[in-house]
Amino acid sequence: MVKVKVEFLGGLDVVFDKQRTYDLDIPSEGEFTVKDLLDYLVTNMIKNPKDVEMFIEDGTVRPGIITLINDADWELEGELEYVIEDGDIVSFTSTLHGG
């Protein structure tokens, strides 16, 4: 089991049932990576399949979404390969604006 806090900011909360913050207890055996987290979010938390493309593109976080792990840019942490530890905070902030 991995305990992780996930935040959806900059309008992304609309995709995730209009809730900005989730404290998740995710069943996991062995290492649980950011890639695993993305798969979990898409499978379990996005209710409208059309909304997936607002969050994921080509198997990773869509360009225009800033991803932080414990307030550090995920590029510095290994992106999809980062192994999530209990208590980590993963934030997704959209810089894309509709009009």
From TrEMBL:
Glycyl lysine isopeptide (Gly-Lys) (interchain with K-? in acceptor proteins) cross-link site: 99
InterPro entries: Beta-grasp_dom_sf, Mopterin_synth/thiamin_S_b, Urm1
Function: Acts as a sulfur carrier required for 2-thiolation of mcm(5)S(2)U at tRNA wobble positions of cytosolic tRNA(Lys), tRNA(Glu) and tRNA(Gln). Serves as sulfur donor in tRNA 2-thiolation reaction by being thiocarboxylated (-COSH) at its C-terminus by the MOCS3 homolog UBA4. The sulfur is then transferred to tRNA to form 2-thiolation of mcm(5)S(2)U. Prior mcm(5) tRNA modification by the elongator complex is required for 2-thiolation. Also acts as a ubiquitin-like protein (UBL) that is covalently conjugated via an isopeptide bond to lysine residues of target proteins such as AHP1.
Keywords per UniProt: Cytoplasm, Isopeptide bond, tRNA processing, Ubl conjugation pathway
Pathway(s) this gene product operates in, as recorded in its UniProt entry: tRNA modification; 5-methoxycarbonylmethyl-2-thiouridine-tRNA biosynthesis
Main subcellular location of this protein, as a coarse class: cytoplasm
A GO BP entry: tRNA thio-modification
Record SUPFAM superfamilies: MoaD/ThiS
One cellular component term from this protein's GO annotations in UniProt: cytosol
Post-translational modification: C-terminal thiocarboxylation occurs in 2 steps, it is first acyl-adenylated (-COAMP) via the hesA/moeB/thiF part of UBA4, then thiocarboxylated (-COSH) via the rhodanese domain of UBA4.
Record localization: Cytoplasm
Similarity comment: family membership: Belongs to the URM1 family.
Record-given protein name: Ubiquitin-related modifier 1
Modified residues (1-thioglycine): 99
